[in-house]
Design a protein that fits this description.
Layout: H1 3-21, H2 29-32, H3 50-73
Helix pairs in contact: 1-3
Length: about 80
């Protein structure tokens, strides 16, 4: 496989993992028990921590991609 193929696999996996990681630890305004301003959606997150979630996603995706690379490099699964 070419570098472009590996990049596509990594990016697709990254987005899939990112959408799985997004809800981790999210607390809405209505769950926080604090007063919030009028006009704020009660279900919107108090603190989203997007940067931290992107780092977690990159770590998980790197592990998944490494397993994919090992399967492809050592022909652990043959596709005929």
């Amino acid at each position: 496989m070419t570098i472009a193929n590996h990049l596509v696999v990594f990016l697709v996996c990254w987005w899939l993992v990112f959408f799985m990681v997004l809800p981790w630890g999210v607390k809405g305004h209505h769950e926080s028990g604090e007063e919030y301003e009028a006009g704020i959606e009660p279900g919107s997150p108090v603190k989203a921590n997007i940067g931290r979630k992107m780092l977690i996603t990159t770590g998980i995706t790197t592990i998944i991609w490494a397993m994919f690379w090992a399967v492809m490099a050592f022909d652990l699964i043959s596709v005929n």
